[in-house]
């Protein structure tokens, strides 16, 4: 579904200073319907890599192919259209404070070119998915952190994306709220089959919802493994953060990807209605 081919991102230095290579020749394939985690210490290049996927940060070189479309080869108009297939949520929610929850979601539909008459209903549907139908008229200041992130998830889902990109989605939330937001992300992945990439430095996020992990170090992917292989002992991490993950208590049960795909296929009518997949 997502294929990064030799992606590099170099930031030029200011007047005489050396530049910086934040992402260095990364190849990564993310299977359809899976949840890919990207972990690593601060400054490893995780956020830049995530922003490379929707070209919010255009790579200096390499290709980004999503669902068979090479985004790096598109012109501005083509990219604008394809971007609606890629929803994104951020650590600090990025909601407009002078708009209600409903209006925040409707705005993304407007940018996606959805006709005005459809926007209200689709925004309401998206808010229902995250159980915030009753807070549609609330302004962000009246919502908790978890509710704000759920509005942001609704905003990302409203355009019926194939991919959901999550940049530290729970870092600004307390542990209980983190659990609830992760549950929504896991449910949405399971119900709608949306391919998800989560950048995080929280091992709880990895333990709870991720299928595969890519560990980044200095702009490169230092190692990759399936969380199940880590659990079963079939994979022994060599990176510091990978070993740290191993020591953490992995006890949460996950429905295997193949079973989730069968579930999505069996519920394809509902899934099509919600995600147009
Ligand atoms: N626009 C930019 N211009 C110059 N350097 C940048 C830019 N964006 C990121 N960097 C640098 O690239 C490196 C990787 O940044 P990035 O935000 O991708 O790392 P990260 O792994 O997500 O870190 P964190 O966990 O702290 O968010 C950092 O050293 C950062 O300072």
TrEMBL record:
Example GO molecular function: ATP hydrolysis activity
SUPFAM superfamilies: P-loop containing nucleoside triphosphate hydrolases
Keyword Cell membrane in record: yes
UniProt entry keywords in alphabetical sequence: Amino-acid transport, ATP-binding, Cell membrane, Membrane, Nucleotide-binding, Translocase, Transport
GO annotation terms (biological process): amino acid transport
Cross-referenced SMART domains: AAA
Domain ABC transporter: 2-243
Name listed for the protein in its UniProt record: D-methionine transport system ATP-binding protein
């Amino acid at each position: 579904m997502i294929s990064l081919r030799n992606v590099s991102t170099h930031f030029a230095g200011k007047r005489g200073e050396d530049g910086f290579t934040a992402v260095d020749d990364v190849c990564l394939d993310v299977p359809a319907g899976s949840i890919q985690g990207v972990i690593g210490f601060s400054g490893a290049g995780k956020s830049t890599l995530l922003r490379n996927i929707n070209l919010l940060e255009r790579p200096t070189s390499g290709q980004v192919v999503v669902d068979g479309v090479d985004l790096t080869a598109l012109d501005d108009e083509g990219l604008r259209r394809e971007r609606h297939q890629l929803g994104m949520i951020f650590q600090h929610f990025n909601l407009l404070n002078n708009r209600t929850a409903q209006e925040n979601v409707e705005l993304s539909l407007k940018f996606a070119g959805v006709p005005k008459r459809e926007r209200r209903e689709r925004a309401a549907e998206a808010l229902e998915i995250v159980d915030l139908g009753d807070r549609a008229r609330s302004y962000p200041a009246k919502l908790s952190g978890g509710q704000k992130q759920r509005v942001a998830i609704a905003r990302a889902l409203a355009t019926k994306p194939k991919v959901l990109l999550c940049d530290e989605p729970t870092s600004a939330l307390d542990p209980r709220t983190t659990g609830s937001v992760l549950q929504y992300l896991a449910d949405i992945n399971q119900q709608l089959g949306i391919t998800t990439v989560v950048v995080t430095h929280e091992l709880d996020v990895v333990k709870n919802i991720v299928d595969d992990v890519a560990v980044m170090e200095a702009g490169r992917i230092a190692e990759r493994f399936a969380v199940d292989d880590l659990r079963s002992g079939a994979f022994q991490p060599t990176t510091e953060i990978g070993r740290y993950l191993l020591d953490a208590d992995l006890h949460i049960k996950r429905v295997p990807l193949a079973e989730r795909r069968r579930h999505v296929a069996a519920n394809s009518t509902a899934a099509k209605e919600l995600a147009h997949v």
